[in-house]
Amino acid sequence: MDAYKKAGVDINAGYKLVDDIKNLSKNSDLGSFGGLFPLALGTYKNPVLVSGTDGVGTKLLIAIKANLHKTIGIDLVAMCVNDVLAQGAKPLFFLDYLGVGHLDNEKAKDILTGVVEGVSQAQSKLVGGETAEMPDMYTHGHYDLAGFAVGIADQDKLLSSDNLHEGDILLGLASNGLHSNGFSLVRDILFKQNSYSLNDTLSGCDLDLKHELLRPTKIYVKSVLPLVEQGKIASIAHITGGGLPENVARILPEGLSAEFNYGSWKVPAIMKNLQEIGHLSFDDMKHTFNLGLGMVVAVHPEDADDIQSQLTAAGETVSRVGKLISGDKQVIIRKDQQ
Amino acid sequence: MDAYKKAGVDINAGYKLVDDIKNLSKNSDLGSFGGLFPLALGTYKNPVLVSGTDGVGTKLLIAIKANLHKTIGIDLVAMCVNDVLAQGAKPLFFLDYLGVGHLDNEKAKDILTGVVEGVSQAQSKLVGGETAEMPDMYTHGHYDLAGFAVGIADQDKLLSSDNLHEGDILLGLASNGLHSNGFSLVRDILFKQNSYSLNDTLSGCDLDLKHELLRPTKIYVKSVLPLVEQGKIASIAHITGGGLPENVARILPEGLSAEFNYGSWKVPAIMKNLQEIGHLSFDDMKHTFNLGLGMVVAVHPEDADDIQSQLTAAGETVSRVGKLISGDKQVIIRKDQQ
């Protein structure tokens, strides 16, 4: 195996990493050809598997620049399982793909520590993964991460736009900052147009830039899934790339629009800083960032108080951010109160 | 959205691509938060989901260098679904992740054309995917691909090393050349240590290097799955990175070794060329390349003729390549006949 190692691929380093992940995840089956997940189907009449794949975009370049790799795996899991949750499904298991130029076991272990933490937050199971060493593909310590989550729901409990009616209330669940979208713009504003350092702390922010930018994406499974299972949630939008306009539009049926009252929730200080420093229009802001809402939950008016208090009790910061009105699938953000 | 586009991310190009993939895959549900797959469980008593994730390694760099992107997606699907098949499971659905520096819709469409073709060969369904545009992460037209496959099997029909006995016959299924492993060594030998051109044709090869190296990985689902479902296959090893030694060792139980008779199957001309040009030891060869066998199927002696003829009838090139002997999980490749 000497020739292959000289060509840049260290198979033994890969085996060592598999052992590390087995220990971290406490899943000793990792490393076989395929990951196994027994299905307990007692409670499902017409089970549907709901799967999602995603990456964390150029937030990775912040983790690389800051040399802080322990939370980016949480972002990876969050991006996938929140999508599965948004369909009304319970995330069951997760797999990760890590592409690297040269395998650095310590760094890979940090990355996978985050994946394992994310999977735990999602009350899910890590059943497999792939670490691919690709000399000449990735440079400068770069790596890419892709995640894959599979969940399950009963066919008639999948959330759908048919559940929505005029007057339904939109509850916004606070994000933990930027989450994992808009980072090409963030990097452009802070590090290309300007010369901020990762050690700087921007106005109104609690953390310096490296920690502020790397705040891990919230995983909403633990707080939201029980309410989905109670049948009390009409629909969910996971706010990712494209912001409120694109992601809320995806859940709207014909004949309804969503109206948000800007000012009814807190916009994170980091976003206000980015708007000011980058001279961004509100249009740019709303299409790129989550504006402080990581997930928007639509509920019927009679359930709104109950759901809001249950979500609050589960640790979420919840605001009543808008409602559904008659319209043509528009997402309107009213700034009257601003 | 102008600011984000100026920072290198074109959301509208992404939407166009989703439409293209919907058309290619004929799955109009693509583009929602999560991919849906209804489970038909009639025939499963204790269903187990079997999932696999993989990439295609630096074979990508050959596709990029040759500017031929239409088959690399077949490799991606093959790497994942053959792993699922090797557990005795039927692949159900697939998702892909494509990371790019700058989204080139034509190239992405070529790549996804291969994914759709691979999914079709695997008698599976494409239920989702992610195309991530990451400026500054990937350079020189580089991109990475990760795939995720999920299959299903009944718990008691999963292939396991418990099925294997001394005297079981190893049937080797011909690979389609290099498949998707060893490419860092291939590139080192051909393009770094030496200065071959992708237009050169090596001794004994039918195709020039760009087409020889890019031969898509065989997908064995259509020919092998029916035999798995008949209960006639004892175990399967998918021969990928690590070659016969590592991959066959993974299926061996305590007390058994595998003995291969080198010379009982055809080693592809491209590998012989690489051995000669790269001055590779046989040890390097066997740990890096599949040596011409993409999948090794273990069967009980009384089933060997039947299985061999069924696989041949299904279009596979099948050789009786060895057997299981008493031993300590060693993979022995006897070269007496060489």
Q: How are the SSEs placed, and which strands pair?
A:
Two copies of one chain form a homodimer.
Chain A: H1 2-6, H2 11-25, E1 35-38, E2 47-55, H3 59-66, H4 72-86, E3 90-100, H5 105-121, E4 125-133, E5 143-154, E6 169-174, H6 183-192, H7 209-213, H8 221-229, E7 235-238, H9 243-249, E8 256-261, H10 269-277, H11 282-288, E9 293-299, H12 304-313, E10 318-326, E11 331-334
Parallel strand pairs in A: 3-4, 8-11
Antiparallel strand pairs in A: 2-5, 3-5, 6-9, 6-10, 7-9, 8-10
Helix pairs in contact in A: 2-5, 4-5, 9-11
Write structural notes for this entry.
The structure is a homodimer of 338-residue chains. With 338 residues, the first copy, chain A, is α+β, with helices and mostly antiparallel strands. Chain A has 2 domains: 2-157, 60s Ribosomal Protein L30, Chain: A; 161-334, Phosphoribosyl-aminoimidazole Synthetase, Chain A, domain 2 (Alpha-Beta Complex). Chain A has helices at 2-6, 11-25, 59-66, 72-86, 105-121, 183-192, 209-213, 221-229, 243-249, 269-277, 282-288, 304-313; strands at residues 35-38, 47-55, 90-100, 125-133, 143-154, 169-174, 235-238, 256-261, 293-299, 318-326, 331-334. In chain A, strands 7-9-6-10-8-11 form a 6-stranded mixed β-sheet, with helices on both faces. In chain A, strands 2-5-3-4 form a 4-stranded mixed β-sheet, covered by helices on one side. In chain A, helix 9 packs across helix 11 (282-288). The longest helix of chain A is centred in the middle third of the chain and has 17 residues, at 105-121. Chains A and B meet through helix 1, strand 1, strand 2, helix 4 and strand 3 of A and helix 1, strand 1, strand 2, helix 4 and strand 3 of B. Strand 1 of chain A pairs antiparallel with strand 2 of chain B, so a sheet runs across the interface.
